[in-house]
Amino acid sequence: MAKSDLIGGELWEQYSDKVAERMNNPRNFGELTEAEAQELGGKLVIANEGAESCGDTVRLFWIVDIKTHIIKKASFKSFGCGTAIAATDMMAEMCIGKTVDEAAKINNLDVEHALRDEEDVAAVPPQKMHCSVMAYEVIKRATSIYRNVDISTLEEADIVCECARVSLQTVEDAIRINDLTSVEEIADYTKAGAFCKSCIQPGGHEKRDHYLVDILARVRAEIDHERYPDKAMSADFEKLSVVKQIKAIEAVLDEYIRPALARDGGGIELEDVQSGENGIINVHIQYQGSCKGCAGSVAGTLTFVEETLQKNLSDKIRGIVV
Amino acid sequence: MERIYLDNNATTIVDPAVRDAMDPFYCHMYGNPNSLHSYGIEVRPYLHQAMEQLYAGIGARDEDDIVINSCATEGNNTVILGIYFNLLKDTRRKHIVTTQLEHPCIRESCRFLEQHGVKVTYLAPNRDGMITAQMVKEAITDHTALVSVMWANNETGLILPIKEISEVCKERGVYLHTDAVQAIGKLKVDLKDVQVDYLTFSAHKFHGPKGIGGLYIRNGVSLPPLLHGGEQMGGRRAGTVDVAGMVAIGKAMELANAHLAYQNTEVRRLRDKLEDALLKIDDILVVGKRELRTPNTVYVSIRGVEGEALIWDLNQNGIAASTGSACASESLEASPILTAIGADKELAHTGVRLSLSRFTTEQEIDFSIYVINKAVSRLRKLSTSY
């Protein structure tokens, strides 16, 4: 909470003029027919996304030139609020003149950016962002239809939120692209978790394969790791209890080190963890299998082990072969 | 652009006569009613007069209390939290019966008590959108301390059977609270006829100003205050009385009751005219039997037309209405009332509420009918399901 959050209620006044204009006068709505496709010498693609019971649906029509794969014409129909209509209208327009491959790269943020009046002012408030996600998903759907990818493979995608039919991929993408940090934001962007709430965390109406809290934690960890490869967890690692430090070291050994050593028929065991001077953490290890007694172990392999532990856990780690 | 206000269940225009009655207390009569001197002396009669208007307005007996407060949310919290400190906390009576139709201030204060070990039953409306006395009866257990059921529903206008519910509560020895925010000024609220223990109301729903409300507490029914402090309101609600607001709520109550016949004839006629015109649109659903609703409200679901999109179009034409479509709120849940009445899942996001007042004119209704038809046809042209 802060000064700007206390009154609340703002919604429509946060829409850009472009959103309002396209809601009032969408330029690309209506259906395209086989007859028109034939006239233009292209292939008609019709893609549906969403469900009325979830609050919005989009139907995207493309006429695609099958030689160049260029989308010659695009239009839409939509059941949804003003933002959904405006975003879909903009999305359809952005498809025109692009190849299917290029169009498939358009995401909800591109659509939202295109709807901005000013470069650094969002076109819609955060709780309306999900309305543009639909526009992005329908492009993916149309692309799969055009490329003749079996629709059943799409249906079987890992669905995290059944109510809103949001896939694991969509949730992961939304977290990554928009840098989301909370379950509430995931709901704003994707609608996942906004309905029956079963998929947010264990203990809801239904048991689920994936829970948003877990996905968020995992993807956030991945993002942090990518952003700060050198210091991924160093501050945290040094504060951990010895037991947790051991577990973290074991996890890195399992994920990165043991598989590498196994390729050469070797192995590694953690023997001890001791704190040294100036915050140094001494990790005592013992080689197994072909690493044992190998001359390279002490030099090359130790460097690899130490650097991997440093990169993933803390630069204060020093490897010591027992 | 001329504007038309069809969102009177959200708030209402202040009646000019109410505004006139308030005015002196923002000018020369600014005394604190607790003062001994002439400034206090001159305002007190107006507060007594407001009390007379309020007691007469809801049929309270002289021995009962009407505590003036800031709004119905405050009144409802006072009741729910007060019951907790009086009964739920220390006795075996740890159960509240309420409904899924209630305003968030009831729901959230009940949720808060659930964190403190209170059991709450939230009754789901039946397929007519109603809560029946039988449903309440079946929900009451030996541990129930309080039943809280609204008198009329804000969304659909459906009038709940408070009299029968009050009889059930009396029979079982359970306190009854009713949120009468949507009832006052739309139908006769007479506590001589219907026995409730607590009743809450808010001035801005019946042409009074925002920020002033009332809590009726039946004689002999205890309730600790929410706000502790001075002796105002007999110690039931501390804090300097909003003199202008209290004068206003008294005047607004008097006017609301004086216009009940008009509500029941003219406002009802205009609402019915609007509703009949809307029913000519294909694939449209009105929630709740007309004769069971407050005379000013119609809640419609129009297939293929998303609620927020419709009120956007109405707003473009200067017409104010509201939607139960979750898309307009931060939560994305489907309308509970449309779910409850078993409407098609496809309709869950199509609910739009139009609510009239005694200031609504025939021309306004005629123009609204024209605009709604235009908007529905535009949005259906865009819609995937048409």
Structural notes for this entry:
The complex is a heterodimer of chains A (322) and B (386). Chain A is α+β, with helices and mostly antiparallel strands and 322 residues long. Chain A has three domains: 13-152, Sufe protein. Chain: A, CATH 3.90.1010.10; 157-227, Arc Repressor Mutant, subunit A, CATH 1.10.10; 234-321, GMP Synthetase, Chain A, domain 3. Chain A is 44% helix and 17% strand. Chain A contains 13 helices and eight strands. In chain A, the strands form three sheets. Chain A has a three-stranded antiparallel sheet with strand order 1-2-3. In chain A, strands 6-7-8 form a three-stranded mixed sheet, covered by helices on one side. In chain A, strand 2 and strand 3 form a beta hairpin. Chain A is elongated, with a radius of gyration of 26 Å. The mean pLDDT of chain A is 84. With 386 residues, chain B is α/β, with parallel strands linked by helices. Chain B folds into two domains: 16-258, Aspartate Aminotransferase, domain 2 (3-Layer(aba) Sandwich), CATH 3.40.640; 259-382, Alpha-Beta Complex (Aspartate Aminotransferase, domain 1), CATH 3.90.1150. Chain B has eleven helices and 13 strands. Chain B has a seven-stranded mixed sheet with strand order 2-8-7-6-5-3-4, sandwiched between helices. In chain B, strands 9-10-13-12 form a four-stranded antiparallel sheet, with helices on one face. In chain B, strand 5 (144-148), helix 6 and strand 6 (175-179) form a beta-alpha-beta unit. In chain B, helix 1 runs antiparallel to helix 7. The longest helix of chain B has 21 residues, at 38-58. Classes of the chains: A alpha+beta (322), B alpha/beta (386). The interface between A and B is medium-sized, with 32 and 27 residues.
